[in-house]
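Data deposition worksheet. Section B asks for the primary sequence of the deposited chain exactly as it was used as input, without tags or linkers unless they were present during the calculation. Section C holds the resulting structure in token form. Section D is free text for depositor observations; keep each observation to a single sentence. Incomplete worksheets are returned to the depositor.
Section A, Depositor: J.P.
Section B:
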Amino acid sequence: MEQIRKYFESTIKLTDQDWKVFSSKLVRKEFPKKHVLLNAGHVENYLSFIETGMVRFYIPKMENSLTFAFVFENNFVSGYDSFLTRKVSDYQIETLSKTTLWRLTYNDLQEIYSETGIGNTIGRYASEDLFLKKSKRELSLLNETAEQRYRNLFVEQPHLLQHIPLKYIASYIGVTPQALSRIRKRIY
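Section C:
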């Protein structure tokens, strides 16, 4: 739980009272590898912080699912559009390893907003973080080659990337597994 406080306090100052209210709503939960955290067709009820592990976002397809995001430890994870709108998600979120999350329900977040002076700042900060990652991904898809996207992913999380199946990485960078194999041969 202290990881979350450090994460916030890198940019904002939390009083002990605000932290007490916020942290009292957090629930620590462990999930096994390949556990679906959010199913397509369901509403996202949690804003979570990854203590350990990693997850992927994907659109389930009959043959090959379409992976469009990875989230690693010390970051927020949520089907945030569904969380905010209270509408069903078109995609799924799945753990790629044993994963420990600190979770906050939608209703608990609303209470934090109303009960603390810093609640809205915390919510805004988490929202901005998720938005910036989404924008970065969109710009990457528009401006970079698949090889550049692969290299970026490798630079950002090299130790974790080794644990992600290549078919998910290929889907994420927008190529077939065979094309990813060619990219990897050029790089190494």
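Section D:
DSSP finds nine helices and eight strands in the chain.
The longest strand covers residues 46-52.
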